[in-house]
Amino acid sequence: MFLFLVAGSALSALEIRIDYSYDTNNFFDTQQKRDAMEAVADFYGDMINDTLLRIDADDFSSASWQAVFSDPASGSLAEIENLIVPEDVIIIYVGARELGGSTVGLAGPGGFGASGFSDWFERLRGRGTAGAAESDPDDRTDFALWGGSIAFDTPRNWNFSLSENASGTEFISVALHEMGHVLGIGTAATWDNQLSSGTFTGSAALFSYGSAPPADGGHFVNGLNSLHFGVFDVTHGSVGPVMMLPSFTDTGSNFDVATDLDLAALVDIGWELTPPESFSVVALSPAAAFFTWNSVSFKNYEIQRSGDLLSFPDSSGITSGDGSIQSWSDPAPPALKAFYRLSISEPIALAAFSNEARLQVEPVPGSDIFRTIYQAPKTVEDCLE
Q1: Residue 21 CB neighbours (<10 A)
Q2: Whole-model pTM?
Q3: Residues 317, 379 within the same domain
Q4: Residue 43: what are its φ and ψ, rounded to 5°?
Q5: How far, in Å, CA of 205 to CA of 28, rounded?
Q6: One domain, residues 56 and 114
Q7: Per the structure, how many domains does the chain have?
Q8: Residue in 341, 291, 294 with CA at minimum distance from that of residue 321
Q9: Domain containing 307: what range?
Q10: Which of 96, 115, 264, 316 meets the CB 3.0–4.6 Å disulfide criterion with 372?
């Protein structure tokens, strides 16, 4: 008799909160449209493990701020006074307007104006992460944000299905792309800091692509392919165009969704990602034990076996993820019982990017002064169909 176990530590997910209060052109006027938007938010939020501290001016001395972002319905700058952003939440304001030409969407992280002392500014920039709180963008090694905005183009015919690639512009593909910009691809200082000679030099991207992938400004360069991450009925490990390209390509039967290279770029700009591995039992009996899982190139995988759950001395050996569906079969299943688990770790070359120490602000008495600062919002405007 066999017993089977999938064991893993519980990881906190990021809540990407979609706010429709600036959707004054009523683009999201049906539940189907909102469901599609929120499915995209859940896709990203469920795999991001970062801890983002609360933003509340009342928690700091003499502090105030204005969340600044591009109004998705008008394109003008919008400001919200002393917005409270809960812990582990980012807020994205969505809406639509006529964007002109072949532009399908505009998006990016919000900025802020603020008054107070240095610990308050560090909270706004880094939300508790030291590498994101540096005042000089050139010194940043991580990325954090309070939120941002996404605008979609109104004149076109949109397909809001979660699975059917039908006529019109595929909303899921565009929304995944634009939320990638909000999360920092093409917009974060840590993206800009890793652009060199027409390539993106992040370590995880190099793992995924095999070399530094071509990139220009806010996108990877048109023509790049990678392996799809299995979501929205797209087969995991199938080859398709990288999601964060400047031009969308309708590949026919499937949506253009996030690929291994796109997710690797999120890791390189500072996010801690644990994509769901979809660990599956293909066969489990005294004669055969066979398992599959969805890998990503920035994780290592190891199936471990135990006879009593007290320890897991038997191991399949560490397998480097590659973005495909990987598998393993037990060459000698025990005759009586066994417990199996999939252990996931990071390659040593990428481990330095994870678990960055929380920023502990200890102002030196007399060295801090009250002042006002401004950080502009940023958008990527050449997302074309």
Answers
A1: 10
A2: 0.93
A3: no
A4: -55, -50
A5: 34
A6: yes
A7: 2
A8: 294
A9: 280-353
A10: 115
